[in-house]
Design a protein that fits this description.
Elements: H1 2-46, H2 52-69, H3 74-92, H4 94-116, H5 131-156, H6 159-176, H7 182-201, H8 210-233, H9 236-241, H10 243-261, E1 286-292, E2 298-305, E3 307-308, E4 313-314, H11 318-323, H12 325-333, H13 341-349, E5 355-362, E6 372-373, E7 376-378, E8 404-410, H14 417-429, H15 434-450, H16 456-466, H17 479-493, E9 495-496, H18 509-517, E10 519-520, H19 522-535, E11 540-548, E12 562-565, E13 569-577, E14 581-585, E15 605-606, E16 609-610, H20 621-677, H21 682-698, H22 706-724, H23 731-751, H24 754-763
Parallel strand pairs: 9-10
Antiparallel strand pairs: 1-5, 1-12, 2-6, 2-11, 3-4, 5-8, 7-8, 11-13, 13-14, 15-16
InterPro entries: Bact_TGase-like, Papain-like_cys_pep_sf, Transglutaminase-like
Organism: Blautia ammoniilytica
Transmembrane segments: 20-40, 52-69, 81-105, 133-153, 160-178, 184-200, 212-234, 643-667
Length: 767
């Protein structure tokens, strides 16, 4: 009797002892996955350092959930407890909780904005509360939520969400460029792996294989210790400075970039990465398809580089752009955008300027950018707002970029910027349109602060090569002097060639081009010229994009889409005209005259001072003869190109006509055969089917199956009967013919290769 009374208690105690290791193991895994993982993200986003309140709340919540599950109606009790605790905390500490959430949110928004160019809304903090206490309350509540989520993941075995969750720190490192502390990083990922293993090995809630658990934990401890020792022996700073690590990161970034945004190599454009500069290539493959009501030539800007570091051009860094977010918010609220400034300024001087809608289909070009003209009047839909590119490059939306978009543009203006610059200066000097003047003055100050940066070494080189920078008392050398001097220097000392030597990657790109190689293409000339303009005090940027030339639109009818090939890709320099905005200036001699240029000798002013012309160097007769010879050769090649295009067009037309003919003949033969098979005269129908079966049978060089042979003999006899016997044809005999034809076609197609089948289908028209 005593034994009977004490056994239930012993069994219950034994049950809890057996479950305890499993409970502690799962609580530890939840702590590692949800605790270490979420705090890892908090450290990367906000710099949070107080781990204890958060990690304790995660572990305690996980233990409560797991212990209450062992009771009867445990899951109902767990849910009720979590609900009550959360409700009490929210009710009594709601202001502190909200204030803490705002603190962490604003810190994360600042980091994403300054490092990744991702702009999030920031909220005003509550000043009458202790921010440290608010942050602690928020961390405790977040820990309760994390512990509950981890418990649910284990109960519902949601392994896919855990795998995706494991990718978040990696994505965040790529976006922000920051690296977390190694201890939490290692604990999180090993806990994640162990948690996934446990989810897929435990059939019941607390089933525990002690040998497996001890082995896995021992292995994790060894690897964790090795990782920590390695981190101490090779600090993070030294690791990041290793050349092999730097090269691997760069190659991985380029591969991901190509996978996301590129469909192939259309031309020699580098996206600003001068390390990849080599021979200039140009493909005839269509890069952009453009639809315009009134076709017009234009420069289509893609990548715009503001920062030069000796081996690459980059858009303005995200940190600088984020610091100016309030400026651009204010400018955009007033309707002032740097990308549309040229059109806005022109409308101030002439309100009758016409506009049209342009649609672009990006077929094979880099989809990271939207290719837009300088004359753009309205930004493409979805591009309004502040971003990390600060009114320079129009970035595409989406992980894969954007392939289709449209915008509104005005008539061509880049060939008139000298006159427009003078007109807009006079208008602003007269005090008209104070709103535009005020907005332009702020944007002007931003441009001068960011687009005049020049390495000291290059400044010394330019002083040696170009001489003194001129009179800078008015802010910069006058535009005409700067343009003509830079052009004269590049024409005299540099040689254009598409077969440029690859960049050595060891020194400065421009110094190597000017002092050593002296040979290059548009990427070289545009890079050197942009920095030379900065030497003269004129804000300038490096641009890559596509040209829509007068030759491209010459035979284009209204509304007809333009096919812009990859060979129209080009790099050029743009300079800032005070009051008017950025305009393109062609500095590659090979491209002079390709696009209509402004008259540089009229209208240009620098801060109100009339520009003084600097005479260009006189060219020798030999140079003139070389130019004539060059253009004669170019015209001859153009004639050959037109002949080849005509030949290909005729050949393609013949191929299309041939394909249409054989298809139509095949359709006609199939229709006539089907009509004979369905004839009301059963004898004629059976004769037609038997004759068709005989044609198919004669093509079988490797024989047929036994079933096919038997059916063919029956069809042959039925055909003889239909042709020479007065007896009526039975329905079964027609069905046998159909079955025989089906089997013969099936087996015949397996015997023949694709070409023989194509011939039999479209030339002999048996199928």
């Amino acid at each position: 009797m005593e034994v009977w009374l004490t056994m239930p208690g012993q069994k219950q105690k034994t049950k809890y002892r057996q479950q305890l290791p499993g409970i502690l193991l799962e609580a530890g895994l939840i702590l590692g996955i949800c605790g270490a993982g979420i705090f890892l993200l908090l450290e990367m986003l906000t710099g949070a350092a107080d781990r204890l309140p958060f990690l304790c709340s995660v572990f305690i919540t996980a233990l409560v959930c797991l212990f209450t599950e062992t009771m009867k109606k445990g899951r109902q009790i767990t849910g009720t407890l979590i609900f009550l605790i959360t409700g009490i905390i929210i009710f009594f500490f709601r202001r502190l909780l909200l204030a803490g959430a705002v603190v962490f949110w604003n810190k994360g928004a600042n980091l994403l904005g300054s490092s990744a160019g991702i702009y999030l809304v920031r909220y005003q903090t509550v000043t009458d509360l202790d921010t440290e206490l608010a942050a602690t309350v928020f961390l405790v509540c977040l820990g309760i939520a994390a512990g509950t989520a981890g418990y649910l993941f284990f109960r519902w075995r949601i392994s896919l969400i855990l795998v995706l969750y494991g990718l978040v720190p990696v994505v965040l490192m790529v976006l922000t460029g920051s690296f977390p502390e190694p201890d939490l990083f290692i604990i999180f990922y090993f806990s994640l792996v162990l948690g996934l293993i446990r989810m897929h090995t435990c059939k019941e809630a607390f089933q525990q294989d002690l040998a497996f658990g001890e082995g896995v934990l021992f292995l994790a401890a060894v690897i964790l210790a090795a990782g920590l020792i390695l981190a101490r022996m090779l600090p993070q700073e030294e690791y990041q400075e290793l050349q092999v690590v730097s090269d691997a990161k760069e190659k991985a970034g380029e591969a991901l970039y190509d996978l996301r945004f590129k469909k192939g190599q259309l031309n020699g454009l580098t996206g600003g990465n001068l390390k990849n500069t080599g021979n200039w290539t140009g493909s005839d493959e269509t890069a952009l398809r453009i639809s315009m009501e009134k076709p017009q030539p234009m420069y289509l800007r893609g990548f715009v580089g503001s920062r030069y570091d000796g081996s690459s051009w980059k858009s303005i860094d995200s940190s600088s752009a984020y610091q100016e977010r309030n400026l651009f918010y204010w400018l955009h609220q007033k309707g002032f955008y740097g990308e549309t400034q040229l059109a806005s300024g022109a409308r101030l001087t002439d309100t009758s300027i016409s506009s049209q809608k342009v649609s672009v289909k990006n077929l094979a070009a880099d989809s990271r950018y939207l290719y837009t003209p300088y004359e753009m009047q309205q930004l493409p839909e979805g591009c309004q707002g502040e971003d990390g590119l600060a009114d320079s490059t129009v970035g595409a939306k989406g992980f894969w970029g954007q392939r289709s978009y449209s915008f509104t543009t005005v008539q061509p203006l880049t060939s008139q910027f000298t006159d427009l610059g003078a007109q807009i200066y006079q208008l602003l000097a007269s005090g008209k349109d104070p709103g535009y003047r005020q907005a332009e003055s702020y944007y002007n100050a931003f441009v001068y602060a960011n687009d005049l940066q020049l390495p000291k070494a290059l400044e010394s080189l330019f002083k040696q090569e170009l001489g003194d920078a001129g009179d800078r008392t008015q802010g910069h050398t006058d535009y005409y002097t700067a343009i003509t001097r830079i052009r004269a220097y590049l024409e005299k000392h540099m040689t254009y060639s598409s077969a440029a030597d690859p960049y050595s990657k060891s020194g400065d790109f421009v110094r190597e081009f000017l002092e050593d190689k002296k040979i290059g293409h548009s990427v070289h000339f545009a890079t050197a010229a942009a920095l030379m303009f900065r030497y003269y005090g004129i804000p300038s940027r490096y641009v890559e994009g596509y040209l829509v030339t007068s030759a491209d639109i010459q035979d284009t009818e209204t509304g007809q889409p333009l096919e812009i090939p990859g060979k129209n890709g080009h790099a050029w320099t743009e300079i800032y005209i005070d009051g008017l905005g950025f305009v393109p200036v062609e500095m590659t001699p090979e491209y002079y005259g390709v696009m209509e240029e402004a008259d540089l000798k009229t209208g240009l002013e620098a801060k109100g001072r009339q520009a003084k012309a600097v005479p260009e160097e006189t060219r020798t007769m030999q140079e003139e003869e070389n130019i004539q010879t060059h253009w004669s050769l170019k015209l001859a090649l153009f004639g050959i190109e037109k002949f080849l295009l005509l030949f290909l067009a005729v050949f393609d037309g013949f191929c299309v006509l041939f394909i249409l003919t054989v298809v139509m003949l095949r359709i006609r033969a199939s229709y006539r055969r089907r009509k004979r098979f369905l004839s009301r005269d059963d004898k004629k129908a059976l004769c037609a089917m038997a004759g068709y079966a005989e044609d198919l049978y004669s093509r079988g060089e490797n024989g047929y199956s036994k079933r096919a042979e038997e059916l063919y003999q029956q069809v042959y006899q039925a055909g003889q009967k239909a042709a020479f016997s007065p007896h009526k044809i039975q329905l079964q005999e027609k069905d046998t013919c159909r079955e025989c034809i089906r089997i013969l076609k099936k087996e015949l197609k397996k015997q023949k290769n694709w070409f023989d089948n194509w011939v039999m289908k479209y030339i002999e028209r048996l199928y």
